Amino acid sequence: MLNNMRGADKEVEGQGQAVSPISQSLSSSLLSLQINAIFELEEPITQISRGKKSLVDVFLPSNPLFSCTMEEDDRGVLRWQKRTVNIDDHIFIPEFPPGQESYDSWVDDYISKLALAPFDQSRPLWEFHILNYKTSKAGATMVIKLHHALGDGISFMSTLFALVTRVDNPHLPPTFPTANPTSRSTPASNQFLATIFHKIWYVILVVWYTLVDVICSSLRTIGWIDDSQLPIRGPPGVEHMPIAHSSATFQLEDIRKIKKVVGGTVNDVLTGIVFYGLQLYLQIRLSAVREQSLQDGYKKRSELVNDSVIKQMKNSRVTALCMLNTRTLAGIQNMGEMLKPKTQAPWGNHFGFLHLRVPIMGKVENPLEFVRMAKRIIDRHKMSLGVFINAGILRCLARLRGPQVISRYLYNNIANTTMAISNMIGPMEKIAMDGNPIKSFSFFVSGAPQSLSVFIVSYMGTVKMEVMAQKAYIDANILCQCFMEAFEEIKKASIDHI
Question: Are 24 and 358 in contact (CB under 8 A)?
Fold first, then answer.
C-alpha cells in the first residue's frame, strides 16, 4: 500500500519505492484498469501554455508517483523509478474534420477509443486529452486518464480537485457534502433488557451476514456462483471490445424528496433507480423481435412485455459489484492530509467490494417498491463486515501469494458479476479549471471484464449517472432513457404518496 508518500518521495529519488502488490495486480497482463475523468467546460480552452504550467507547478509536485514509471531492479523487484517528465508527452489535442454540424459523436467516439488504449509503460501513467470542440453539452471537453495502479478514485479526485478553484471565491477550496450524524437517545431503565437483547441479536446478524458475504464472494471467485447470461452480459474478453458511454442527470433536490418518502438515503434512491431502469431495459431487450430495432422497441415498450419475459427475468441471477472506500475517513480529503504519515485517509488503493443482488420484481403497481427494496438490500449489507474482510483477504494474498493471485482474485470477482456500480460525492459549488468554469464532470473505469458499469457523481446540486457499456451488447443511450423513465415514475409515485 502507498501509505507514506512523503517517505516514498525520498525513496523515489534514490533506489525507488517498491510497487505494492495491489498496484501490480491492477496493472497485469490479466487485469489492467484505467480511471477516466471527463470534464465538460463552459468555454473553449485557449490558454494551452498556461494549462501546461499548472501541470508543472501543481499536478506533478502533488505526488512523486506522477513522475515515475514501474521498472524492475537488479533483484527483479518492481519499483517506482523517477523520470524526467516531458509535459508534451502527456497532453493530447486531437484534430477533427472542420465544418461539422455537431461534434458530439466525434467526442464520444474519441472517449470510447481512448478508454481501450493502453498506456505507454515507458512514461508516467497519466494523460490529459483536450477536445477543443463545442458539443451540445460543453464548449470544450477535457479527459484526464490515470492508471489504477497509481491509486483509486478517491486518491485521484483529491488530486484533480487541487487543480480547480471555486468560481464564487477562488481563494476558498471546494466543499463537499457530509452525512448528518444520527442522534441516539439513551434508553429508559424499563427498556434495558430489551436493549441488551437487541444488541445481542444485532451481533448475531452481523456475524451471519459477514459469513454469508465472505463465503459467497469466495465461491464467486472460483466460479461456483455465476450470473445468468442475459443480453447485458458479454462473453470472456469483453474488456477488449469497443465501448459506448452515455449519461442521465437528475436534480439532487428531487432525490432528497424521494428519500424522505421512503425514509432512506440518497444512495438508496439512486440504487432503486438503477434497479428499476435495468428491469425496464431488460424487458425491452428480451421482448423486442429480431427485426425490430431497440429504439423501436423502446417506443413500443408498453406493448411488448409479456408473462414469459417476466418469468425469464425473475428466474435470472443479476449481481452488481460495488467498490467501496475502506479508509477510516470517508469522502474526498485534502491532498495534504492524504500524504501525511499514518493518516486516516491515505493515498493509494484502499478499497473493498460487495455483491448486490439486483432484484427483478416483474410488474409492480408502485415504482417506489424498487427504492424500498434497494434500501432493504443496502441496510442488510451495512450490517456485514464483508467489505473489510474482502479488503483483508486482498492484503493477505498480497503478502502470501503475490500480485498475480490478487489479479486473478479481482478478475474473477468482476467477471462473474453482471455490472459494476460506483459513486462519488463532488463539490457543492461551481468550480473552474484554469479559470474555465466546469459545467459537469463524470468518471468511469475501463479495462474491467464486464459489459456494463454505472458511475454516479454529484456536482452543484445535480447527480450524473454515467453509463459505460460494450456496444455489441448494450445500447447505452436506451439504457439511460430507461434510467430517466425510472426516475420520473419513482418521483411521480413519491408525490402521489404524500
Answer: no
